[in-house]
């Protein structure tokens, strides 16, 4: 990028764009206008500085995935989407990549493989979405143990035995807190195991593609 013979590095360009966005936001705030850009507006700006639509759409997708992961880490202790990528010096299709995987891996629930051609190379992306385990663990423990058992014990003992409104209120909350903490711990163990599995798949594809040369 030039201005009077001056060229800006990628790092400087990012800083300049950040400042421009900040100045634009302040101007809109002062004028009482709404701030923020739609995805199409972001694409248009990117094209003006030489960034292709496909690249910006990929960046938006990655940003949204990271945002979802941050929320999931706060609530669940681990993300709800595991992604590993590999670039190989061959042109491959998703079917060819799947052929390098064992049948149990291809049949695994929540696992998907995508391949993006890049000028003679292929970017392989393996994604695992443990939605099922997340729903089962948190729904079963928090819903069954926390709410179900907590209310049962709290109401049963609190009313029939102790006649204590405080016991009725505190015991279910204690059960829910305990079951939620237990669910987070179990979910972390499950996700770490699935993360190892996805990384092993990527390693297997790397080795298989290399040996096929």
Descriptive account of the structure:
By secondary structure, the protein is of the alpha+beta class. Helix content is 68%, strand content 13%. The protein is built from seven helices and five strands. A three-stranded antiparallel β-sheet has the order 3-5-4. Strand 1 and strand 2 form a beta hairpin.
User: Can you tell me the residue ranges where pLDDT is under 50 for at least 5 consecutive residues?
Assistant: none
N-C termini distance: 41 Å
| Main β-sheet, spatial strand arrangement | 3-5-4
Taking the sheet with the most strands, its summary is: 3 strands, antiparallel
Quaternary state reads: single chain
SSE string, helix = H, strand = E? EEHHHEHHEEHH
Counting DSSP E segments of at least 2 residues, the number of strands comes to 5
Structural class: alpha+beta
Helix content: 55-70%
Query: Number of DSSP helices?
Result: 7
Strand content: 5-15%
Our Rg estimate from Cα atoms comes to 25 Å
Average of per-residue pLDDT values: 77
What general outline do the C-alpha atoms trace?
Answer: flat
What are the defining features of this structure?
7 helices; 213 residues; two-stranded antiparallel sheet; alpha+beta; three-stranded antiparallel β-sheet
Structural topology:
Elements: E1 2-3, E2 6-7, H1 10-31, H2 39-48, H3 53-76, E3 82-88, H4 94-99, H5 103-106, E4 111-118, E5 121-128, H6 131-162, H7 165-211
Antiparallel strand pairs: 1-2, 3-5, 4-5
Helix pairs in contact: 2-3, 6-7
């Amino acid at each position: 990028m030039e201005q009077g013979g001056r060229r800006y590095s990628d790092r400087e360009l990012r800083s300049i764009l950040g400042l421009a966005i900040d100045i634009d936001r302040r101007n809109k705030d002062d004028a009482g206008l709404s701030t923020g850009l739609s995805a199409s507006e972001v694409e248009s700006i990117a094209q003006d500085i030489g960034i292709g639509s496909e690249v910006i759409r990929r960046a938006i997708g990655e940003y949204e995935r990271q945002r979802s992961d941050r929320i999931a880490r706060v609530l669940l202790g681990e993300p709800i989407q595991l992604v590993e990528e590999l670039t190989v010096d061959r042109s491959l299709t998703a079917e060819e990549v799947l052929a390098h995987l064992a049948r149990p891996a291809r049949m695994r629930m929540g696992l998907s493989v995508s391949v993006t051609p890049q000028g003679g190379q292929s970017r392989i992306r393996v994604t695992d979405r443990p939605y099922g385990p997340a729903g089962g663990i948190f729904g079963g423990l928090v819903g069954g143990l926390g709410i179900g058992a907590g209310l049962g014990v709290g109401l049963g003992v609190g009313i029939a035995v102790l006649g204590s409104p405080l016991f009725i209120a505190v015991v279910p909350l204690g059960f829910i807190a305990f079951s939620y903490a237990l669910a987070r711990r179990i979910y972390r163990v499950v996700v770490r195991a699935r993360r190892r599995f996805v990384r092993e798949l990527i390693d297997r594809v790397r080795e298989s593609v290399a040996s096929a040369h």
